[in-house]
Amino acid sequence: MAVERRIAHLDMDAFFASVELLTYPELRGQAVVVGGRSAQAPVTNAQGDREFARLRDYAGRGVITTSTYEARALGVFSGMGLMKSAALAPEAILLPANFEAYRHFSRLFKAAVASVAPHVEDRGIDEIYVDLTQLEGDTLTLAQRLKQAVWEATGLTCSVGITPNKLLSKICSELDKPNGITILKPNELTTRIWPLAAKKINGIGPKANEKLASLNIHTIGELANTPAELLMAHFGKSTGAWMAQVAQGIDDRAVVTWSEPKSISRETTFERDLHAKHDRARLSEIFTNLCMRLAEDLQRKGYASRTIGIKLKYADFQVVTRDLTLPDDITDGAQIRLAATECLKRVPLEQKIRLLGVRAGSLRPVQAAEYLARELQPTLPLEFGS
DNA sequence: CTGTCATTAGTCAGACAG
DNA sequence: ATTACTGTCTGACTAATG
After folding, report:
1. Which of A51, A100, A127, A152 is flagged as catalytic?
2. Which fold has domain A16-98?
3. Segments making up each domain of chain A, as ranges
């Protein structure tokens, strides 16, 4: 008989905004949003006070990355266009994103958690799963210990959910946010989970939720009471069966502490939409840049790629992708550009473009020494002495 | 030899997530 | 007068292979 697992999901509270508040403590308690491509960084005036940009002063195509809970109270959430959010909360403080700082604090909080519980799965910059099954001590004490370690290492709070699996823990970490602990007791599935909206399930997004709503399924409980056959008929065999399982709170996925990346990509949205003919030179420059940066990423992370792909987003937001699998691995920026150019030839270019991306897939780890062997042409020491 | 079936690789779109 | 960026997964379709 298998022991019941104890899986924790730990989610940092309003992570990016909270990191900014460490830098700018005078903003505590205010509506603050992070985001915007050209958001103005705070400036210190002659009196030594910091002056912050307001949302109403912003003009551009950015979106909100994170907002403080005070800003959320005004209806301003992540993913929202900045122009729209400025209409809702013109006085909110706007800060540019500082990803270097977020990555720094991400490393700090993950190291702190790992010092308490070594079995950690990375889920992006601000959340993790932790397998506590093998650890001594009762569940609540362990949760408090995790939160304490994060607080001492970073000065930041987080919310924790602990249940027998990742699915339920992810749901539970949200139930008492911010700075909360939720431990799902046995038999609480029907009382605490089933009343929740179906879209609270990680994997049921806006589309699936809409489709469920059209079947008059709104809560997880209603999903649980829907025959698996019906779900399979509407969502396909695999997705339908999965939905039926998760609605019963069943999820056997292991906590995975490491996995090989499948693809590495770079993309950018232009300041203004560009046309393939009219803005050829500018587009070519951006394209080369993306390829070179992708090559740097590949080499820094130690991978060679056999599949190169491109992504275009047109002015009307339609997205197209093309990719090309090569006979051999490549790592070099010029080779990537060559392959990506082949992809570009297979794409319509009448309409204006707002985004261009380049992606490397079919990755193979390579030894650092292999890169030296791959340098077909000697690189000119452009930076040397300049 | 032809047709069918299973399997795999490749390509593309789209959903989803943090 | 909007809607980022990076990455994973799956479904649909085609082609190749046996």
Report:
1. A127
2. MutS, DNA mismatch repair protein, domain I (3.40.1170)
3. 7-13+101-189, 16-98, 194-247, 263-368
Question: Could you tell me the fold of the domain covering A7-13+101-189?
Answer: Alpha-Beta Plaits (3.30.70)
Q: In which residue are the tokens 């022991």 written? A: A3
- The Cα A20–Cα A71 span in angstroms is 14
Local confidence pLDDT in tens for the 386 residues of chain A: 778 999 999 999 999 999 999 999 999 999 999 987 778 888 888 998 888 999 888 877 788 889 999 999 998 888 888 888 888 899 999 999 898 899 999 999 999 999 999 999 988 899 999 999 999 999 999 999 999 999 999 999 999 999 999 999 999 999 998 999 999 998 999 999 999 999 999 999 888 888 898 889 999 999 999 998 888 888 887 888 899 999 999 998 889 888 888 999 999 989 899 999 999 999 999 999 999 999 999 999 999 999 999 999 999 888 999 999 998 899 999 999 999 999 999 898 999 999 999 999 999 998 776 666 655 444 433 332 22
Tokens 């090559």 — which residue?
A295
Told to judge if A127 belongs to the known catalytic residues of this protein, a careful annotator would answer yes
Through-space separation of residue A46 CA and nucleotide C7 C1' in angstroms: 45
Q: How far is CA A229 from CA A62, A206, A207, A250, A284, in A?
A: 43, 22, 20, 17, 51
Listed residue (A11, A35, A17) closest to A202, CA to CA: A11
Footprint of strand C on the protein (CB under 7 A): A 37, 59-63, 65, 78-79, 81-84, 236-239, 261-269, 297, 317, 354-355, 357
CA of A165 to C1' of C12 (A): 32
Q: At A80, list the tokens.
A: 């929202």
Cis peptide before A178 (omega within 30 of 0): yes
A320 sits within 7 Å of strand B by its CB = yes
Residue with minimal CA–C1' distance to C9 is A203
Using C1' positions and the CA of A325, the closest nucleotide is: B10
Phi and psi angles of residue A259, each rounded to the nearest 5 degrees, phi first:
-145, 150
Superfamily of segment(s) A194-247? 5' to 3' exonuclease, C-terminal subdomain (1.10.150.20)
pTM of the model: 0.90
The correct CATH number of A263-368 out of 3.40.50.150, 3.20.20.140, 3.30.1490.100, 3.30.1330.40 is 3.30.1490.100
Residues 234-293 of A with CB under 7 A from strand B: none
